[in-house]
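Q: I'm a student working through a structural biology exercise. My instructor gave each of us a protein and asked us to get a predicted structure, then write a short paragraph describing it. Mine is VWA domain-containing protein. I'm not confident about reading structure output yet, so if you can add a plain explanation after the tokens, that would really help. Here is the sequence I was given:
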Amino acid sequence: MALHANLTPEAQQALLKQRRNTAISSTLIAVLTIVLASVVLAIFFVANIEKDNVQIVSYQGRPEAPIDQMQKRKVTRQVERTPSSPSSSMARVIAANTVSNVAVPVPEQVSLEISEDFGDGNDFGDGWGDGGGIGGGGGPTFFGQKVSGGNIVFVIDYSKSMGGRREELMRKELSKSIGELAPETNYQLIFFAGPAWVAGDEVIGKCSGTSKGCEVKHERKTYEYTNSGGFHGWEFKDKIIKPDWIKVSDRNLKKSIEIVNTQKLVTGTVWKLPLHLAIEEMDPKPDTVIFMTDGVAGHDSLEVAEEFADIARKKKITVNAIALMEPKAYEAMKALAEGTGGTFALINSEGEKEELNDRDIRKKEKEKKKEKEKNKDKDDE
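A: Happy to help. First, here is the predicted structure for VWA domain-containing protein. I'll explain a few features afterward.
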């Protein structure tokens, strides 16, 4: 006969509560067991990261021996093989003449192989191109004379006597010289005949030997010149042009060369006006003045040359003088150049430097005088 016990409601609630607590306890124990197992596995399988401390030793080298006690070392042509990489356990040593708190690491590998890509890496960059500009390579020259300095002024004769072969030589050589100017150079072109003007200015009026004056338009301002008579009597009237420097650039050089080849010749020959503009009005002062003419500026040419040579020498300005196919200007031009430490050159009809002594000069002057008389006779006929 089976006996069955019936639980009271209070006993049933207590039993359910006990089961619930037992389930919660089992779940917490399972979670903690999993976490503990994960920690143990992490410690067991994950290796410690050890820091590789490189030992660097430096020592102070001996002071260098005096130069007179140093022995010459023999130069060996034997090519050494590339050494193998040093072992990481080896101590790396750096020799130093002074002790420093900062050590310089030794590179792991040294390559003795010469790269064929010099100048094309990340440090040097591209830039060996031939360029598309006008700027020069070995520096400018003018009829064989070296043109040097950061500030250069070309003072060029644009008188009507420069026509023909002289004009052809002058325009060609001047264009070439301007095109060779270095990028860091400042330059200016001063032209002269009776008046003097800056390249690009407009000469207004008829500047003839019989006219009493003419005008030059420079940067929207008008400058007047007076003439006391003849081809050599020109003077500044009131205001004097103050030429500005031109910075070398492709655009400026092209514009200057265009002016050189299109500027018209004007009557007269006066040296003191353009030399005054170049030597006394330029600010800052020029380093070099290139002065070229085909003739003398009246009976006082030597006096003018010596006066401006003295001014230029005191300002440490070098004047290079070129007499183009005109030995008559030899003495004055030479005094102007040599008085400033510059060079003088007499250029013949072939555009080459010609060496002449006093006898040769007198002979050429006689030949020229005869030629003028002959031409005059033809005109009379």
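A: Here are two points you could use in your paragraph. The chain is about 30% helix and 20% strand. Residues 86-91, 115-133 have pLDDT under 50 and may be disordered. It's a good idea to check both against the output above yourself.
Q: Great, thank you!
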